[in-house]
C-alpha cells in the first residue's frame, strides 16, 4: 500500500513554510509522495484577487523541484466549477493508495463549514499541522470535538512555528521590501518576471 499526502492551497506564492510542512509530514507519516494541489476556483477565495492559476502552478513546480517525492497536480486548476476537497480526494483515491490530506490548524477550526466532510474522513486520513495564532489547548479541544462528532481520528503534527505567510510576502513585495529569506529564488524569479503583487 502506497501512502500519498495531498496539500492543497492557493500557493500565491509558495514559500519555505509550505516546503517545511510537506517535508515534515512526509518524514513523520512515512509518505511515499507529497502532491501539491494549487486551488483552481476555491469557494472561500472567490472574493479575493488570486494570481493566474498557470503562474501559481509554475511557482509550485519550481519551488518543489529540489525535493525528492514532491509533485504538483493541476487537477483542481483544470477542473470546471468550484474546487471542493472531498471531490479532489475522491478523484485521487485508488485501491493501492492510502491518502493523507494535510492542512493547517485554521482549517480544523472552520472544518464544519466545509462541504461533505464525512466523505473527506471516509477517503483520507485527516492531518492537521500547528500554526501560529492557535494554542495547543484550543486545537486539542476542537480535534476531540470533531473526532467524537464524526467518529474519526485526526493526526496532529506539532511543527515549529515558521511564521511566513503568502499574504505577508505579497504585501512586502508591494512595499518594495526584501523577501529572499521567505521563498526559493526560482519562485522569486517568476514573481519578478510576471511583475506579481505590485
TrEMBL record:
The gene is nadD. It catalyses: nicotinate beta-D-ribonucleotide + ATP + H(+) = deamido-NAD(+) + diphosphate. Gene3D superfamilies: HUPs. NCBIfam families: cyt_tran_rel (TIGR00125), nicotinate (nicotinamide) nucleotide adenylyltransferase (TIGR00482), PRK00071.1-3 (NF000840). Belongs to the NadD family. Residues 6-172 form the Cytidyltransferase-like domain. GO terms for molecular function: ATP binding; nicotinate-nucleotide adenylyltransferase activity. GO terms for biological process: NAD+ biosynthetic process. Keywords: ATP-binding, NAD, Nucleotide-binding, Nucleotidyltransferase, Pyridine nucleotide biosynthesis, Transferase. The keyword NAD applies. Its EC number is 2.7.7.18. This is Probable nicotinate-nucleotide adenylyltransferase. It comes from Clostridium thermobutyricum. The lineage of its organism: Bacteria, Bacillati, Bacillota, Clostridia, Eubacteriales. Pathway: Cofactor biosynthesis; NAD(+) biosynthesis; deamido-NAD(+) from nicotinate D-ribonucleotide: step 1/1. InterPro entries: Cyt_trans-like (IPR004821), NadD/NMNAT (IPR005248), Rossmann-like_a/b/a_fold (IPR014729).
Amino acid at each position: 500500500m502506497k501512502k500519498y499526502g495531498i496539500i492543497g492551497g492557493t500557493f500565491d506564492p509558495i514559500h519555505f513554510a509550505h516546503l517545511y510542512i510537506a517535508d515534515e509530514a512526509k518524514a513523520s507519516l512515512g509518505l511515499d509522495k507529497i502532491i501539491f494541489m494549487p486551488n483552481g476556483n476555491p469557494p472561500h477565495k472567490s472574493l479575493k484577487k488570486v494570481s493566474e492559476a498557470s503562474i501559481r502552478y509554475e511557482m509550485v513546480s519550481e519551488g518543489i523541484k529540489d525535493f525528492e517525492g514532491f509533485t504538483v497536480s493541476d487537477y483542481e486548476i483544470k477542473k470546471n466549477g468550484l474546487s471542493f476537497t472531498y471531490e479532489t480526494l475522491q478523484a485521487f483515491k485508488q485501491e493501492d493508495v492510502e491518502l493523507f490530506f494535510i492542512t493547517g490548524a485554521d482549517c480544523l477550526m472552520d472544518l464544519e463549514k466545509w462541504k461533505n466532510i464525512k466523505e473527506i474522513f471516509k477517503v483520507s486520513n485527516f492531518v492537521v499541522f500547528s500554526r501560529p495564532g492557535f494554542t495547543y489547548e484550543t486545537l486539542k479541544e476542537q480535534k476531540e470535538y470533531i473526532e467524537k462528532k464524526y467518529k474519526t481520528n485526526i493526526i496532529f503534527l506539532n511543527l515549529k512555528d515558521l511564521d511566513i505567510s503568502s499574504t505577508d510576502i505579497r504585501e512586502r513585495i508591494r512595499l518594495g521590501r526584501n523577501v529572499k529569506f521567505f521563498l526559493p529564488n526560482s519562485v522569486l524569479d517568476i514573481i519578478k518576471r510576471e511583475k506579481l503583487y505590485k
